[in-house]
């Protein structure tokens, strides 16, 4: 796209050569004359001054530092995201059903949906207009896939689950697996039938190899606009509010309710039957053992230290109780 067309599409003011052709994105330090880059803050001032990019998306306060054409944005990162979709449009498979797909006769598949090789669609499933089902996906009985939703290859959607419109689910994800529900008996563990569903709203993104368990009785629910990274485990009956974002390797135990607009850092662990209110932000490796009723940022875990220092600190943590008791005895 040329600079003028890109600025128009992004609804941004621009300064420079309107006819400049831009054919890709690159970091500010390595971008070439045909590439677009972005800078979000004065932290990258030196890189901006020395960039060889053809154009840069910047806040107005940094525009005069740029040695190239500029696009002025109050939210450079969001504008960059929009530009990435314009310069790198996602490939959409043509409509139709591949000859090797196995489709039950009792299904509803929109005429303009795309069903790739090796897909299995079981009885009672419904795939709505514009949906794209990648190679090797398995769609269980009674599943609903909403309009323009994309399933990358090898996604599994188990029986009766509901996927909203415009969702994107990456390879290896499993939606509607049985929750971890077992009752102890004299002869061992007895599985409890998991009879709920997974209900996923609109505009949800789910990363590779993420698993979302079906509800034990009620449904597991993922709200509109939620984004989930790779390798996340969401247990049965969890409810996640709208626009919450969860990074990789998080584990959420059963029946936990997470509010709207939360962010959960990578490798965090949340025990079951808790409630986390809206606008809570957990930093990476946080361990949540009790409900959170006030919005804000929360952290736990111990940052990396040199091994010797870490050992001393860990040993002293174990001595705190004895030190407290000794101090209290001295006061008495």
Annotate the secondary structure layout:
Blueprint: H1 3-10, E1 13-15, E2 24-25, E3 35-38, H2 45-49, E4 55-58, E5 69-72, H3 76-87, E6 96-97, E7 102-103, E8 108-109, E9 114-115, E10 120-121, E11 126-127, E12 132-133, E13 138-139, E14 144-145, E15 150-151, E16 156-157, E17 162-163, E18 168-169, E19 174-177, E20 182-185, E21 188-191, E22 198-200, E23 205-206, E24 211-213, E25 220-222, E26 227-228, E27 233-234, E28 239-240, E29 245-246, E30 251-252, E31 257-258, E32 263-264, E33 269-270, E34 275-276, E35 280-282, E36 287-288, E37 296-298, H4 307-331
Parallel strand pairs: 2-3, 3-4, 4-5, 6-9, 7-10, 8-11, 9-12, 10-13, 11-14, 12-15, 13-16, 14-17, 15-18, 16-19, 17-22, 18-23, 19-24, 22-25, 23-26, 24-27, 25-28, 26-29, 27-30, 28-31, 29-32, 30-33, 31-34, 32-35, 33-36, 35-37
Antiparallel strand pairs: 1-5, 20-21
Question: Can you describe what's shown?
Answer:
With 332 residues, the chain is an alpha/beta fold. It has three domains: 3-87, MurE/MurF, N-terminal domain (Udp-n-acetylmuramoylalanyl-d-glutamate--2,6- Diaminopimelate Ligase, Chain: A, domain 1), CATH 3.40.1390.10; 96-298, UDP N-Acetylglucosamine Acyltransferase, domain 1, CATH 2.160.10.10; 308-332, no CATH class. The chain has an eleven-stranded parallel sheet, with no helix packed on it. A ten-stranded parallel sheet has the order 7-10-13-16-19-24-27-30-33-36, with no helix packed on it. The mean pLDDT is 96.
């Amino acid at each position: 796209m040329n600079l003028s067309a890109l600025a128009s599409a992004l609804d941004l003011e621009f300064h420079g050569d309107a006819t400049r052709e831009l054919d890709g994105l690159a970091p500010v330090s390595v971008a070439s004359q045909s590439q677009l880059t972005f800078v979000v803050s004065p932290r990258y001032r030196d890189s901006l001054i020395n960039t060889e990019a053809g154009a840069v998306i910047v806040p107005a306060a940094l525009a005069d530092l740029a040695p190239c054409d500029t696009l002025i944005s109050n939210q450079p990162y969001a504008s960059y995201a929009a530009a990435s979709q314009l310069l790198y449009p996602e490939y959409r498979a043509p409509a139709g059903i591949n000859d090797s797909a196995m489709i039950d006769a009792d299904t509803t598949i929109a005429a303009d949906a795309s069903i790739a090789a090796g897909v299995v669609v079981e009885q009672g499933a419904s795939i709505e207009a514009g949906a794209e089902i990648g190679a090797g996906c398995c769609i269980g009985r009674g599943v609903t896939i909403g309009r323009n939703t994309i399933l990358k290859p090898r996604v599994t959607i188990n029986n009766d689950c509901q996927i909203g419109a415009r969702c994107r689910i990456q390879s290896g994800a499993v939606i509607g697996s049985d929750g971890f529900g077992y009752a102890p008996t004299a002869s061992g563990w007895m599985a409890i039938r998991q009879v709920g569903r997974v209900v996923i709203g609109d505009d949800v993104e789910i990363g590779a190899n993420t698993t979302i368990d079906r509800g034990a009785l009620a449904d597991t629910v993922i709200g509109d606009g939620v984004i989930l990274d790779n390798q996340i485990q969401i247990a049965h009956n969890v409810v996640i509010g709208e626009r919450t974002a969860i990074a990789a390797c998080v584990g959420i135990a059963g029946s936990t309710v997470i509010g709207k607009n939360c962010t959960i850092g990578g490798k965090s662990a949340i025990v079951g039957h808790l409630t986390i209110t809206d606008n809570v932000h957990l930093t990476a490796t946080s361990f949540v053992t009790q409900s959170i009723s006030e919005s804000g940022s929360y952290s736990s875990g111990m940052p990396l230290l040199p091994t010797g220092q870490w050992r001393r600190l860990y040993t002293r943590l174990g001595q705190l109780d004895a030190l407290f008791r000794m101090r209290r005895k001295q006061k008495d």
